[in-house]
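Exercise: predict the fold of this chain.
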Amino acid sequence: MEFLERIRREYSNLTKSQQRLADFITSSYLDAAFLSSTELAARLSLDPGTVTRFAQRLGYEGFPELADDIQALVKRELRDIWEPPALEPTISDLFRQSIDSGRRNLEEIIVYNPSERIEQVVGILEEAKRIFILAPNIVAYHEGCLLKYGLLAIDFPVCEVCGDLLSMSRCLRDAGEGDAFIGVAYTRYAMDVGSALRQAQAKGARTIGLVGTVVCPIAEACEVTLICPTRSLVPLPCFLALVGALCALLEVLALRRGVEAEERLRYLGESLQEIIEARQ
């Protein structure tokens, strides 16, 4: 799994050919794990020397050492991901395959994110005086709203969820120490949010990325990143892992606040019930 973190750190400094390698390895590591450098180069129509230079750029002696890291990740998953599909799958078969694909994404959150990374994210949120959530598109915006209202429910100081240039500029205007900025995105198309997060970090704010891939601009820009795989059976991201990670993160934060969070949630529930009863 260390290779994913190395790719995240170095991605913006790689050549175009090396970025193609990085994209393939991060999205298809099960294939990459069992290819030689020559086979990998042929697969992507690259010079074999590019594969060696790519591995060395990541800090490995050569490609065999990088391959060892990739294979270690595959072994840690301890399951057979490749299940033979039915010759003529029924609608129920397709539904189960989709659910199983999402389940694997959820399980891989634990594989991709070591304990110290999760602890770092929780620590940043617990110490923040103000929290801003940046999302580059409408889907990520709604995920950001889920996180916002969950945090507000347990009394965390969330100020705003935004992704447009004007709103992000306003959030950055007086950003500084004590602030935390969270970027939410699934793909590499999040350049503006990535730039905003870099500016926030330059001003002394802490930055967290909740992303679907390590090559997302948000992952490159952030101090710490939680990787939530988005692989699906079709060319459309599966959002299940990110939603699951958000829910787990909120539960952890609530549990750490103990009685204080329980009392606040109980009060919210009672207030909602009073409003509903007033309608009658």
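Check your answer against the key: The CA atoms of residues 118 and 226 lie 7 Å apart.
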